[in-house]
Amino acid sequence: MAVTPQTNTDLGAIAEALRSRDDFIICGHVSPDGDCLGSQLGLAAALKGLGKRVTCLLAKDEPIDERLGFLPGAAELVPAASFDGIARTFVAVDVPTRERIGEAAAALLEGCDLTVTVDHHAVDSTMTDLVYVDPDAASTTMLVWELAGLLGAERAGDVAQCCYTGLVTDTGRFQYQNTDAAAMRAASEMVEAGADPASVSRAIFQNRTLPSVRLEGIAVERMTFGAGGAYALSWLSCDDFEATGAVKADAEPIIDALRSVAGVRVACMLREQGDVVRGSLRAKDDTDVAAVARSFGGGGHVAAAGFTLSCTLDEARRLVDEALAATFASDEEGACRA
């Protein structure tokens, strides 16, 4: 485990601080994925098992991905803007910055007398009193799993199911580069504690909507390649979503289809959303897609990153294509010098 320079404590100290408190709000990032919701709900289950009062917040008042609705506690999520309960301790999981928790959650953060971050996204800033960020962890739920143990909480049942969900989604069913021995050990512990891999797989990976499959057909048909096939790029417009009856979550699995093409090292999926374009990047080698995302004001992990562009879809395609072409040109120049 290699914590970031911004980390100012360890999980043991965080566990000690949390044990002494009773009222918690737990928040993740906007548009929460499996690791985000798994971290929130897994930690909430652990704390509730110790008799704590806990509310899990949605950073933005929007529906979660329906495929994650099976998670224990998902039906009790409260939009941050609607929360009117007691807030003494704010725990941010799977999110490192105020921008990613939204304005309503940031206001609640300010009102708490203890704030904590547990995450695996490396950034150059902090937003809480206690910070533990380990970018080597395959998922934030791996850290929550460890934290739950240090709390002395019962990890069987809901805690295990939530933490396993975050781990299996952030490793792409244990296919991504972040799948290491530590991730496999943690997965084994979670299953031994009651996580059900088959039910998680059915809910998330074998439960796509028909609009999602139709969107994938559009994206695959549009797919373009660059750097001799080293990267693949595709895009979806607002009209595509309207024509297929799809929602935002239906586009999430599509980038894996692009990434799966033989010879492709990096896949990029662009999605028009109102007056901005959201971009997702995935690598299946050591290409640093986070560097590409940062060039557009985004961020993420070496193998998985994202960004937002305030421009037209056509302009976004041009900008991203140029950035990816430059990335692979730099790789070739470096290889030649070596």
UniProtKB/TrEMBL annotation:
InterPro entries, per the entry: DDH_dom, DHH_sf, DHHA1_dom, Oligoribo/pAp-PDE_c-di-AMP_PDE
Domain of life of the source: Bacteria
Domain DDH: 24-166
Domain DHHA1 residue range list: 248-324
Pfam families, per database record: DHH, DHHA1
Molecular function terms, GO-annotated: nucleic acid binding
Descriptive protein name: Bifunctional oligoribonuclease/PAP phosphatase NrnA
Protein species of origin: Eggerthella lenta
